[in-house]
Amino acid sequence: MASTPTTSSAPAPPVVFPTFRNNVIINPVQRGNPLIECIRNVGKEFGDIPADYQVGRTTGLLFLSLKYHRLHPEYIHQRIEKLGRSYNLRILLILCDVTEHKDTIRELTKTCLVNTITIIVAWSNDEAGHYISCFKQFEHKSPDLIKERTEKDYHSVLRTALTSISKVNKTDVETLRSSFGSFAKISQASTDQLQNLPGFGQVKVKNVKSAFEKPFRNNA
Amino acid sequence: MSTLLPFHKAILEEIHDPATSDLLVLARGLGLRRVVCSLLQIYDSPKSLVLLVNATTEEETAIGEELSIHGITALYKGGGLIMVTSRILVVDMLTGDIPIKLISGILVLNAEKVTPLVLESFVIRLLREKNTNAFVKAFTDQPEHITSGLSPLKNIMKELRIRRVHIYPRFHETIKKSLERRKADVVELSQGMTESMADIHHAIIQCMTATLAELKRSNTSLDLDDLTVENAYFKSFSVIVRKQLDPTKQLVSDLATLRNLLYYLLTYDAFEFNGYLDNLIESNTVTASGGAKVNQSPWTMTDAAHVIFDTGRRRCFTLSSTSKTLPTVIDVDEDEDAWEALNEAQGIQVDAKGKSVASRPGWLPSTVDPVLEELPKWELLTDVLQEIEEETVRIESMKKPPPILGSNTVLIMASSTRTCNLIKDFLATYDPNGKKGAKGRTMMMRRLRLYLWWKGKLVERKEQGRGSFAMPSGSSIRDAKKQSETDISEALQKKDREKAERNKSRRRMRGGAPASSDSRPTQPTPEANSGKVEEAVLAEFFATQATAESGLTPFDIANVNSAALDFGSQLLESEFNDHYGLVAPEETVLIRAYSDDSDDRILAELQPRFIVMYEPNMEFIRRIEVYRSSHPGLGVRVYHMVYGNSCEEHQYLAGIRKEKDSFERLIKERGSMLLPIIEEKREGAGYSEDTVKTISSRYAGGRRELNTEPSKVIVDLREFRSSLPSLLHAANNLVVPATLTVGDYIVTPDICVERKSIPDLMSSFNSGRLYTQCEIMSVHYKHPVLLIEFEEDKAFSLDTIGEMKSYAKPTGKYPPKKKPGEQAQGNSPAYSSIALQSKIVLLTLSFPRLRIIWSSSPFATAEIFNDLKRNNPEPDHIKAVATGADDDPDVGAGVNTSAEELLRCLPGITPKNVKYVMSKVRNLRELCEMDVMGLQDLLGVEPGKACWEFIHKGEGK
User: How far apart are alpha carbons A210 and B896 in whole angstroms?
Assistant: First the structure.
């Protein structure tokens, strides 16, 4: 995907490369922000960039605390304007530190959609720092982690499969497996058998039965 | 239909008028269904169109049976009564399939669940938009649910646009008058717990208190008044706490576990209880992957917990170090007999054990001394049955028996089908001459054996390195037996079982007992057709001679020689009627679990004179009152069993108090309520005050031009389960239902939104579905949007700080530079520990075009959507449906989502072939029954094999 398009789309302002590959470049205006302390496990250096944090060659990140935004509502718009068209992936990291966030976030959502910026909301400096380091660390990571996976061991597949039925929890999966043996046997279990299992009430039994026995398509 | 009592009539008179809309709150157990059904009958005519919504499936079937209402299949235009689920109704109303103007009224059941977020309020809003004349009648019998929050009653009435409310608590004048003319003959039996039970009971309460204290300490902001042990007895407690705070899940679920334990202590037999405890310990100390668990529930560390586990085991058996213990507690003679009979049945298979000295069965390890504590209520139950028997005999032996109404059937009511099974088991096997507290010895021994067998199996399994923990396979020894003999084919076993069932009856008959058969269909069978899982069981208890023998039958079932059975069944066919005709009612005992209003019908049909309430239940007492009052001249005796000074008693009393309190609150609220003004109907959405939202920018100077096209959002049909469509409609959007292949909501021609609630988000990250969905959205739309929607009353935050700390450094595990191979294998084990945040990061990195909307509630979402729509053209319905749908032949067909989810999880099933599989195979069961070849044909060679192996893993040896 777009994780490593090293080519063109080069931003108009001079591209700043970090001294070490693993460094996050921080805009000097962010100096003194407690957030910087919370960025862990990656190197940090200051550099003249259009964004606040440059967490990848094509990824720029703006930071906004809602408290600050309330005092200076025009600030973020100036920043976005300054950002221009730079970066392939543009992030607005919002620190949600006020209770009346509804309208502000709504407003910002609209602004960002127009300016092709993706919003990420964090609720603490720790969390925000975690996001920044994640972005840097995952710069070259493949998205396999969130793709549908195939190879897994039997138990976890069975667990994921059966817990997809609503109301069935991990313990129930064990109960089912140990009482019936195999997936096929579970699929053939009768209502009475299921009813007799510890922890299986009527609703759960009904859910299990309907998952296995109701047709996939009801117009068939 | 049963007769109506005076108060029923009074209620009907109050609310039947089709010109008004009413809300009826009736105390539970007083026959709400009867009222609803009579009302429906009044309205039933081909000229009117009356809809019934928000009924549970059980209610639907039960009401349907009583009145023969057609389901949704009947055409709306035909008129009459129609039951319909709200989701379908909403869609039909939106698409105009139902003539809204012609609806004469809507009946809403379970009105306590109505909030601005549910579909019912959407239905009513849609109705009122076009039709002001129709009536709305709402019903509820759950006053407890309408008491939390600020003016809850008003909110419900506002949502339903109802201005009149009728409240009928049990203490209402009319109800009192009609019910208390004749009081039922109630015998209250308070049974003490055994010493060890009391110990455990006390310990559990201690643990609950400790957990509650912990909860209070860690969350100072909680509303502390509600947090008492008494409240914790109720299921609703978890809801209260969750409402107040989401994070401390561990403690809250601990409380739920403890509450269950209390319940199980009183209802499970000693072995099941101990098995459950074992399981609890296992699941608490070991994680899924087999490693030791770090965060154990705090209460398991307390001394009290130790008492629970220890005493729990001691109720079953004790372990002694020497094998030379004094002769066991088992009653020698009785047991000898029993085992003899068992051996006879089982043939050579277990020859050694009957002869074992000191009547110790061979399977019993020498270090185990059975204690076999029985539940005290069993003893009590046998006494009660004895008394009933004597009473019947006494009445019958009277010279001139007075004309007796009702049948002599004894009805035993218990709280769950599980308890029913247990009682049934006990009654079938108990020994009337046994010592006090040891009457069910035969059954308990069997359970001990089952338990030991299970334990053995467990160890075996552990040794095989499977690292998993089985749960006891429950009360049914048949299941266990079946497991142990997996080599016998399923079908054969089924046959065996059927035959054995019949064989069992045959044996009894030979034993000279009155003919009575378990396999005989019970004569009152509403539960059978109501599709509910209920166990109505006939257990004969007069045939005491046969008990020892019949008690063993479950054991030999699997072993009985089928040849002998064939002969048996032949015999059966010919002589069936002689021996297996209907049993005289006085010889039957019916054991049932409490359920809802359908209990009324059971009472009406059975007309029992003796009712044993094995566990206290307020509703059922009222049912008996109603039953008694509607059958004048019928003498009913009720035995009401309670464990004295236990949570059962407290819960019962607290339940009554709670109901009374909530009624009082409702009445108070009604008194002081400012009636909501029902807003005037709006002709068509999208034309009201907000209409000028699409301002044409071509005209300078603020000249506004009215856009004639109403603002429109296209919503996927599956999304109608959520509350957002309703809120979008409330925010003056035209909601267009459609079956969308891509996305959930199409807001503008360019913006496509996929909505995810937090649990949804996590699961679809795990399954990888979200990635696929984003992929598709990116292909078809210019602005793919992921909507992360938090719930209204929950915190607007992804994780609590406490949980944050634990992964403050997990990123160390994923240094950016690593050898590729290492990274790949590093993924799977630590997978679960990666926080949601990291996955969001990865998702945005993969889809730079994807926007994320963070919405604190569905209300906020509706506002955001309106914002996004401003100055943008309206989406096109036909285009949206067609988008991305080219590869699926079944677009628009109804889909069994839970089955689809499950199917997607199976190995060998990929997003690419899942649609194909679903079109080829009827259901999952059919898929499981396919052989390797069939699956390989379907999925391809490798995936097919993988799938087959997964499905059949763990079978045979």
Answer: 9
Give pTM, 2 decimals. 0.65
Assess whether B733 and B870 both reside in one domain.
yes
Does B471 contact A199 at a Cβ distance shorter than 8 Å? Answer: yes
Enumerate the β-bridge partners of residue B25.
Answer: B140, B167
Instruction: Please tell me what DSSP assigns to residue A168.
Output: -
CATH number at residue B47: 3.40.50.300
Contacts of B288 in chain A (CB under 8 A): 155-156, 159, 170
Domain check: are B924 and B826 in the same one?
A: no
Chain A's closest residue to B772, CA to CA, is: A147
Does residue B849 share a domain with residue B909?
Answer: no
DSSP reduced 3-state for B274: helix
| pLDDT tens for each residue of B185-208 | 778 888 888 888 888 888 888 888
For residue B622, tell me if it sits in a domain: no
% chain A with pLDDT above 90: 8
* B861 & B914 share domain: no
In angstroms, what separates the C-alpha of A52 from chain B's closest C-alpha?
17
User: Which of A170, A171, A183, A176 has its CA nearest to residue A205?
Assistant: A176
Cα atoms in the 13 Å half-sphere on the side-chain side of B712: 16
Q: Are residues B115 and B163 in the same domain?
A: yes
Rounded distance, CA B242 to CA B252, Å? 8
**A86 in contact with B at a CB cutoff of 8 Å?**
no
Q: List, for residues B492-528, the tens digit of each pLDDT value.
A: 444 444 444 444 443 333 333 333 333 333 333 333 3
Predicted local confidence at residue B754, as pLDDT: 92
Q: Is B571 inside any structural domain?
A: no
In B, minimum Cα distance to A125 occurs at B801
Of B557, B573, B600, the residue that ends a domain is B557
Together in a domain, B50 and B168: yes
How confident is the model at residue A92, as a pLDDT?
Answer: 92
Residues of B in contact with A160 (CB under 8 A): 766-767, 905
Distance CA A155, CA A66 (A): 45
- Assigned domain for B162 exists: yes
Kindly provide the ipTM of the predicted complex, given to two decimals.
0.75
Q: Which residues of chain B have pLDDT under 70?
A: 1-2, 66-79, 148-149, 181-184, 218-250, 283-296, 319-368, 398-407, 432-438, 458-587, 675-709, 792-834, 884-897, 956-957
Task: Pick the residue from chain A with its C-alpha nearest to B816.
Answer: A137
Q: What is the CATH number for B767? A: 3.40.50.10130
Range of the structural domain that residue B903 is part of: 897-953
Task: Dump pLDDT digits (tens) for B813-832.
Answer: 333 333 333 333 333 333 33
Which chain A residue has its CA at the smallest distance from B896's CA? A216
Q: Is the same domain home to B520 and B460?
A: yes
Degrees to nearest 5, angle at CA A212 with A206 and A215: 105
Residue B213 lies in a domain: no
CA distance A124 to chain B (A): 8
Count the domains in chain B: 4
- Confidence at residue B554, expressed as pLDDT on a 0 to 100 scale: 38
C-alpha B125/C-alpha A152 separation (Å) is 49
* A14-18, A115-119, B595-599, B653-657, range with the lowest pLDDT: A14-18
Task: For residues B903 and B875, state if they share a domain.
Answer: no
DSSP string, B601-651: HHHHHH-EEEEEESS--HHHHHHHHHHHHHSTT---EEEEEEETTSHHHHH
From chain A residues 172-191, the ones with a CB under 8 A of any chain B CB are 174-175, 177-185, 187-188, 191
